Amino acid sequence: MRDVYRGIVVALAVAAVAAGIFLVYPSGPDEVAARPVAAPSAVPATSSEPAPSASPAATVPAAVPATPSPTATPTIAPGYTAMEALAADRRLPKLTRKVKRTSLPAPAKRVHRDKRAGVAVPRLGKPWKTFGAAPFTSKQVLPKPRGRAQRGLLVTCPLPIEEQRSARDTALLAARWSLNHHPEGAKVRWLASQRVKGGWALMYRVVYGKRQSVAAVVVVDRKGMDRPALAFVSVPDTHRRQWRDVKRVISGIRVLG
Prior knowledge:
The chain crosses the membrane at residues 7-25. Residues 42-75 are annotated as: Disordered. By secondary structure, the protein is of the alpha+beta class. It is built from five helices and ten strands. It has helices spanning 2-24, 30-33, 82-87, 167-178, 244-252, and strands at residues 111-114, 119-122, 129-130, 138-141, 153-158, 187-196, 199-208, 211-220, 229-236, 254-255. The strands form two sheets. A seven-stranded antiparallel sheet has the order 3-4-5-9-8-7-6. A three-stranded antiparallel sheet has the order 1-2-10. The protein is globular and about 45 Å long.
């Protein structure tokens, strides 16, 4: 009888093992091989980085850029025209009809001839002096004040910006361009706007902090040239006596024959 009971126990054990196999493979081992294969991780197998956690934040793809802050958003979207960009520039107020002409002195007799720009401008007396022109085609400067970065200058060159249909609009863009040569944060206050022979002149005050400069741009068409010429003059308040030279530049510029 002992052998009979031992045989029954063995039979029950074999039945239990068979039942366990059935629970793991309900349809047999081939069912596992037929299941879909999971997509591979975005991290290469050779990467030493730890596997992403199961938290919700880990489900965001790493390639998605962070949302830029409002201050990083450009004020001018690609595709805007130069005049639309000018209108959106808060450094320059709108040029209205309230900005009138200014009286000008007689043209200077002594001139500096800039053949590359195709114009002549007044050769200003002391303390002005000629200086290395690059990146312009002519340059006159005032002595650099001690402890100051801003100095007076008069430069000429072919127009470095896009020409507009009207000389007035071109001069406006040139005034905006001229802020590249003033301290950061500088703003414009218009003083005069008027037609000159062959072009347009704008005179304005440039304010930066507690300091200021008086400046002007003059755009004139050059004979036989594909673009106008530009004269730009700026005199800081460290040389207030030379503010009068700004008008001399406006009245004295002329196209070379």
